[in-house]
Amino acid sequence: MVVPAAVVKERLRGQRIETPSWAYGNSGTRFKVFAQPGVPRTVEEKIDDAAQVHAFTGVAPTVALHIPWDRADDYGRLAKYAESAGVRLGTINANVFQDDDYKLGSVTNPDRAIRRKALDHLLDCVDIMDRTGSRDLKLWFADGTNYPGQDDIRTRQDRLAEALVAVYERLGAHQRLLLEYKLFEPAFYTTDVPDWGTAYAHCLHLGDRAQVCVDTGHHAPGTNIEFIVAVLLRAGRLGAFDFNSRFYADDDLMVGAADPFQLFRIMAEVIRGGGLDPETGVAFMLDQCHNVEAKIPGQIRSVCNVQEATAKALLIDRDALTAAQYSGDVLAAHDVVMDAYHTDVRPMLAELRAEQGLDPDPVAAYRRSGYGERIAANRVGGTQAGWGA
Amino acid sequence: MVVPAAVVKERLRGQRIETPSWAYGNSGTRFKVFAQPGVPRTVEEKIDDAAQVHAFTGVAPTVALHIPWDRADDYGRLAKYAESAGVRLGTINANVFQDDDYKLGSVTNPDRAIRRKALDHLLDCVDIMDRTGSRDLKLWFADGTNYPGQDDIRTRQDRLAEALVAVYERLGAHQRLLLEYKLFEPAFYTTDVPDWGTAYAHCLHLGDRAQVCVDTGHHAPGTNIEFIVAVLLRAGRLGAFDFNSRFYADDDLMVGAADPFQLFRIMAEVIRGGGLDPETGVAFMLDQCHNVEAKIPGQIRSVCNVQEATAKALLIDRDALTAAQYSGDVLAAHDVVMDAYHTDVRPMLAELRAEQGLDPDPVAAYRRSGYGERIAANRVGGTQAGWGA
Amino acid sequence: MVVPAAVVKERLRGQRIETPSWAYGNSGTRFKVFAQPGVPRTVEEKIDDAAQVHAFTGVAPTVALHIPWDRADDYGRLAKYAESAGVRLGTINANVFQDDDYKLGSVTNPDRAIRRKALDHLLDCVDIMDRTGSRDLKLWFADGTNYPGQDDIRTRQDRLAEALVAVYERLGAHQRLLLEYKLFEPAFYTTDVPDWGTAYAHCLHLGDRAQVCVDTGHHAPGTNIEFIVAVLLRAGRLGAFDFNSRFYADDDLMVGAADPFQLFRIMAEVIRGGGLDPETGVAFMLDQCHNVEAKIPGQIRSVCNVQEATAKALLIDRDALTAAQYSGDVLAAHDVVMDAYHTDVRPMLAELRAEQGLDPDPVAAYRRSGYGERIAANRVGGTQAGWGA
Amino acid sequence: MVVPAAVVKERLRGQRIETPSWAYGNSGTRFKVFAQPGVPRTVEEKIDDAAQVHAFTGVAPTVALHIPWDRADDYGRLAKYAESAGVRLGTINANVFQDDDYKLGSVTNPDRAIRRKALDHLLDCVDIMDRTGSRDLKLWFADGTNYPGQDDIRTRQDRLAEALVAVYERLGAHQRLLLEYKLFEPAFYTTDVPDWGTAYAHCLHLGDRAQVCVDTGHHAPGTNIEFIVAVLLRAGRLGAFDFNSRFYADDDLMVGAADPFQLFRIMAEVIRGGGLDPETGVAFMLDQCHNVEAKIPGQIRSVCNVQEATAKALLIDRDALTAAQYSGDVLAAHDVVMDAYHTDVRPMLAELRAEQGLDPDPVAAYRRSGYGERIAANRVGGTQAGWGA
């Protein structure tokens, strides 16, 4: 039975996609960061840009912060600023990889004093969450080693576990710890949390409010990400996505740009496992680098890509699929899924937006708005935001 | 401080490496199985060949069986045959991937009757273990899907969990379930146990005697296997190795042939985590395909390769390593490891063998023995063993 | 400017997709070949099945043969049989990898007599081409080595070059040699033609009628296949495609099943480089293994997948794309391409088929036809075709 | 027959390994560049550091420059400075990836004026070569695209070819153009010279003095680099190596650190193809990033690693190898190679160094020299060199 458009639209109306403050700043590769005109100089300007994404899409009401890049004197005031701009502050992302002390690791560093410094920063982030009202603390550790022998793999796990326990114990009853994993980079031999299994094992040790964050670009070639999604949802441990896409390593391209079919499959497993239901608590976040494309429309396009993949996944005729699966008809089952994927959902999304008083084409509407030209003209002087600030 | 040769040799004396009955039969790729002269026709002939490997190396006293390839009318008699040949029966490997029924899966098949049939086979294998006196049941499932939509990922996990519980409950108090994972092949979209995290999660659910088996060829490109070894040992869940080596996919080349440095790093983590201590219970097994090279000397070479890697890993000056690691001297720490790796341990191993009354060069001794020529001359007629029997 | 449907349909009408005789026989992995009911026992039955694919799609008028799997006493009679069934004989695929002699290689074997035998087979294939009227000889060599040192890489290149020259000189003026490359399998260390660069270099050495065949499943992870297509078309050396799809290695899944966006990008480069123009001579062939899905509808689905990808690629607004590219607007240029990709072209293809007197839904029509049930009932006894025959 | 140590040492005495000026400056990842004490502030200080590497190894007499990082007012004077420090200026590396203009490419940029600017820089580099007396111009282009559609793949090839012709025509009769390829990074969808095939095809078009540069870290996972070496040597087109090592992507670790067996296999093919003979003109260069380890000893270690791999490769008993290969004894042939690899060549190298008046252990000797402490104390103030200068 064809899934009615009204049902699909109802589910889409409830979806929320968080954008990251750092997507509005400059980013690049180790070879070069190409600055773009109009890039924010302050966290407030980042929030202004995030508010644009929400204004045109209607589904991006929160913005994630990165500490210390987005450090503020008064987070209460910052939260109010955000609200006045039309958005709210979201996930707090801890950064323990840019101090010189962290060359050989942060919470897994052989030096106890450096570990303590890193832990203190993580605890500070929870303080900030208390003030911003954030639910989620996202932890990504750049920690690892470049050479066999450089440090002891197992001892580093012990150090990591110790730090995680300390952070977890500091969390409030409604706060969560999201542990992100990544195969490699910036470490090139071992990474202390390289895969979902390691993140999952640490979360199990911590407790229910420790959940795994799946960054779609952080896997070895060939890894089936939707399988991981299914397994984590089954275990009640999928906390969040960091969305982006890739052809090679952690390319951080716009989500859905490199492999839209994969994004669709991921969203299909999310829906299958109840991950789109608000009570499951799966957070959908973007984490991308707009190195060569314009940043605000890049975020808008990405939000739309997630919506389109979600819409297609919602179109899967679950009854027909189950029937075909149990009949052992491989082609028929596959066809049910492909039928949903091949559907052009853009008209439906345009309709949905019109119903919500939004322009049917958010990217085009943003381009017509003149915002990009205005910030390019007005944001003169100061220091453009980037990964260092 | 340099590790004394006597210490290294003492540890090496205690190491045991199991060879698989199927390594002595024909194997190949989907394109062609090239038959070799002298290949066994019966399980007894496979045992005879395995006994040769033990006779020349002194460290391969057991042979793993694959059921139904090695099905026997009387396993007690088979065990006695093995003993008379100079070896013992080891791990029982269950095979639920070669009946026509298993096209869409065994324990995860959508069809309940097929799942039951597969489970019954697994339970039969435990019966066999009771008769052979085997400690370990190794489970590798070829189950998975080839196309998105073919079957439901999560439901298959439920089915898998159900079967594993039934098998685990059937085990005797001194028996173990070893769950093996594999990224892909023969399934090309999803595999039901694709990575260590999935195997680990199922083992946790089962109990202490469920352990993970690491096949060194079953990972995505770039996966750091020694990290997995370290993490599993830390969690008390590393049950066994299936050793082989690879340049590309699951190539099943002789262990240590493709990346001897990786094998050394793996053995270094095994030792670091106590995995060489008999009480830890880590089983070292070969699982290889000698498609183009001679099989018995191929096994002998592989056993020697594991020994050499172990010897080098034992040579690591742990005190110097730890000191360098804590001093933050990356190069010095790396050098300690490389110094052990670059050492030519073959003279030490030759010495060890001589001390044990063995020929210092097992491959050369085997070649001189004339055994290969004898089996090529005598094993005429009958059906050569292969993956189908 | 939107590309008119009439223009797209006109181009689609001219496209031809060859199906391989072996796709109708049984196939599998090294672990198991699952037989399917109704599989052909003879080359004539394979041709009958291929004729079904053409009957329902209208664009698959030829069938490729694999020698010796499809060896016939009288190829002229076989050609007539094909014509009476509604198709023609197409590309001749030489097979020099299934004789016991070829364990260490065919045309690159260290043994001169085996090299000669392999070459003789290739020359025989040209004789067959003369009789079938085939234009193309496709050469894929399973040759390579499994272990460092097994054979001399460079000497094998010399042997390969010698054989290719001998074959090329034997070709008629209107015949072509298509050299296929593959990263690995069945060889697991070196492959004698592992990449497009090696195939290209040999073709350059031979002459204009030596062209490269791109099998979409034969690349290292991360390889950008459409780039290779663009470069080979620019050099005038893209001879043919072997279409299939993959998630991991050479999975041989249905083309477009694993990454439909990649297939679209490939077809976009084909069109950009003139490869869809008949005079360019690019041959579009399927080369897949329907291990778990039904074979004839699997081929029909695959043909449709190629058509859909082609239709989408034809929809790219080239003027808008070029304008965006020259303006440096990365997002706008990307959007032009994605706009074409996201279009649901199935209605247009249904229309095109109706215009040609075909059923708009070839898979459904085939299923309704009862052909599958008839062959399952009638093809009883005999030996089912597979990779060995 | 065992290869005599004297023969090996004689060949080693003739080997030269170039170090890059930028290895002495700071480097890092996109996440963070960790500064190290004592890093050079000027090109002269880089040369001083390079001279240390030569002083302790005796085989690194030249240093490669990167323009504009190493721009000088008077290259003649710089050359004299180098000579007075005990080294010579070597390969000139052109850099057309760090100006804001190059965001969408340099010689392949859609904007003609930017292409001209990039070409002018390349021609300037030839001017510099005339003054430094350098033989080789190494061209690595960061050019590519991040998104499908961003630019036209084929047109970019045309632009690239045009620039290369212009540079090649400007070269003096004894100068060479080395074209380097790289799979990805900083471009994440297409790279304009992604593989050896593309580099080779452009070199063929240019002429004999255009040669391919193989950077050992620039390949897709699973790529057999020694095969490429063999093929390029056979075609007379292997111009140079950029040595480094990797576990994942272009990690730029110390050569031989990640996979010493691969480095050995590469050197074995170099020797097999005559690439160690000075007249072949293969240049051996390091191109690494010492992100976390000390830089000068890191370079010394790397030079030693190349020497050790070369020594082992020279130890291969070629007669025994060939005999085993022709006899079809896979294991015996493999054993000949492994026998050389497993040999500990460090004593032989220590001997060689002693014969040349060098300390047998260059890293230890450097550490004892106090140079590292001196530069850390003296190089205060100024701006440390890095990838931006």
Automatic annotation (TrEMBL), chains A, B, C, D:
SUPFAM superfamilies, per database record: Xylose isomerase-like
Pfam families for the chain: AP_endonuc_2
Keywords: Isomerase, Manganese, Metal-binding
One of the record's GO molecular function terms: L-rhamnose isomerase activity
Residue ranges occupied by any Xylose isomerase-like TIM barrel domain in the UniProt entry: 54-250
EC nos: 5.3.1.14
PANTHER family in alphabetical order: L-RHAMNOSE ISOMERASE
Protein name: L-rhamnose isomerase
Source species: Amycolatopsis samaneae
